[in-house]
Write a structure and sequence with these properties.
- The chain is of the alpha+beta class.
- About 50% of the residues lie in helices and about 20% in strands.
- The protein folds into 4 domains: about 60 residues; about 100 residues, 2-Layer Sandwich (Beta-Lactamase); about 80 residues; about 130 residues, 2-Layer Sandwich (Heat Shock Protein 90), CATH 3.30.565.
- It contains 11 helices and 10 strands.
- The strands form 2 sheets. It has a 5-stranded antiparallel β-sheet. A 5-stranded mixed β-sheet has the order 6-7-8-10-9, with helices on one face.
């Protein structure tokens, strides 16, 4: 038997052990065996190149500080890097084959679909703020970036999802946001009190004087003028009370969030062809004043937008509560809007997002032309 075959067998055995540095010399015969040896040598070069690339990727994969997940196109975890194990306390065996949505149980089964839909719409990576839960149940705010992994033919093979822990950054941002929001609410309260206690009392006094004067007049024309003046003042007083209510409803401070929302819906319903539905399984407990105010403002902004822009005839408000989170689901049957359009990212929506974000919460907005709008707000109570 040609000794060269033994050398080929030994070389292939080395390759199977990951040793790709050795090569066989080509004899002067240049026969079929030499041609086979040349092919094996080329195989060694290719295996060495692949191994170097794989090791290079693995080193980067495990040394970056951000958490990195490799997901299949159904959202199942195929691989994780070292940062995931360190920061989320998961090992690969415990998450491999599980849905990424399991780590983000707000609207289970829909979060990855949102990412996939945005990837199909965008030409590059998709970035969004969200949160994931660690193995011990700790809620970690993250900046997520998703992109397709392509094979050599340019086909979409898997999804690379990186998650940057935003805890420290959000803590700083939230301090600033809360200072701004608290200052705004303090000024709203001061203005409402000033309008009610000062201007309101003066207008009421003027109305009383006009009514008293009208009773003493016999001239019909003069009496009609005073009556019209009194009616105009009544309208002004009504408008002023509405302004005071919008600035700071007393019901919110005295009786809590649920009663204030019911009062808001009742006031909005009068004179409007709009139906409100409020659902809650049990009486909501009193929460921190600033949290109740911010939830109220989010609902108030949603109702205002529905009335002004969506041409909705029905608005639904659902409260869900457990010991960990409060969830508010707001929806209407209006005309909806294109959430990706720049015009949908106005100051009102930015204020809503800032208020939710300041409580380490999350808001998901779904809207399509002709299919209404839906906000899902989740705020962790243990963080308050």
């Amino acid at each position: 038997m040609d000794e060269r075959f033994n050398k080929i067998n030994r070389l292939l055995s080395n390759y199977s052990l990951g040793k790709f540095d050795k090569r066989l010399a080509i004899s002067r015969r240049l026969d079929e065996v030499d041609a086979f040896i040349a092919g094996v040598n080329m195989l060694g070069e290719e295996l060495k190149s692949i191994t170097i690339s794989r090791n290079y990727f693995t080193n980067i994969f495990n040394t970056v500080s951000d958490m990195v997940f490799i997901l299949d196109k159904k959202g199942m975890v195929e691989n994780i890097n070292k940062a995931v194990s360190e920061q989320l306390e998961y090992d690969l065996e415990s998450v491999k084959g599980r849905a990424f949505d399991d780590l983000h149980p707000v609207e289970k089964g829909t979060f990855f679909k949102d990412i996939l839909r945005e990837l199909k719409m965008e030409t590059g990576p998709v970035a969004k703020e969200s949160f994931i839960f660690s193995a011990s149940g700790k809620r970690i705010p993250v900046q997520l970036t998703a992109a397709y992994l392509l094979d050599e033919g340019g086909n979409k093979k898997a999804i690379l999802l990186s998650a940057k822990d935003m805890t420290l950054q959000l803590k700083t941002e939230n301090l600033i946001i809360r200072a701004i929001i608290d200052t705004q609410e303090k000024e709203r309260r001061r203005l409402a009190l000033d309008l009610h206690d000062s201007l309101g009392q003066q207008l009421s006094a003027i109305k009383f004087f006009i009514s008293s004067l009208g009773e003493t007049l016999n001239n019909r024309v003069e009496k009609e003028i005073l009556e019209k003046s009194s009616d105009a003042l009544s309208g002004i007083l009504t408008d002023m009370r509405d302004i005071c209510f919008n600035l700071m409803p007393n019901t919110l401070e005295e009786f809590g969030l649920l009663d204030a929302v019911q009062e808001l819906c009742n006031k909005t319903r009068y004179g409007k062809k709009i139906e409100f539905e409020i659902f809650h399984l049990e009486e909501l407990p009193r929460m921190l004043k600033k949290l109740e105010i911010d939830i109220y403002r989010v609902i108030q902004e949603f109702i205002n937008n529905s009335m002004k822009h969506s041409d909705a005839s029905k608005i639904s408000i659902i409260f869900k509560y457990d010991e960990r989170n409060i969830q508010i689901i707001l929806s209407d049957n209006g005309q909806g809007f294109d959430h990706s359009a720049r015009s949908s990212k106005g100051m009102g929506l930015q204020n809503v997002q800032s208020r939710v974000k300041s409580h380490k919460g999350e808001i998901q907005i779904r809207s399509e032309r002709g299919k209404g709008t839906r906000y899902t707000v989740v705020i962790p109570l243990e963080e308050q």
